[in-house]
Amino acid sequence: MQTAKKQNQLIFEPDQFLTASQIKSYFSRLTQEPRKNADELSTAVGNSNITSINDHNQQWQENEDNNDFDSAVSSSQAYELLGKAIHTLDEILSQQQSS
User: What is the pLDDT of residue 78?
Assistant: First the structure.
């Protein structure tokens, strides 16, 4: 910072220079602010929101399970229908060959 220049002129005056500890302190406070806000928010929200999130996750999982089951049933029915179609076609071909 002490050597920062713009068009060969110092950008800051010597009385504006920050020490390493001032810079470190600034960034330390800056990073603690979001943590403090997150802690306050989590305390304010409390367990009721956690329960709501858990309920939402459980409902989503149940929907996924139902969709998986429905998909499996549909697939099973499709294979069954395909099997019947193949059997019918085999019978038709057998009849045509014997005629």
Answer: 81
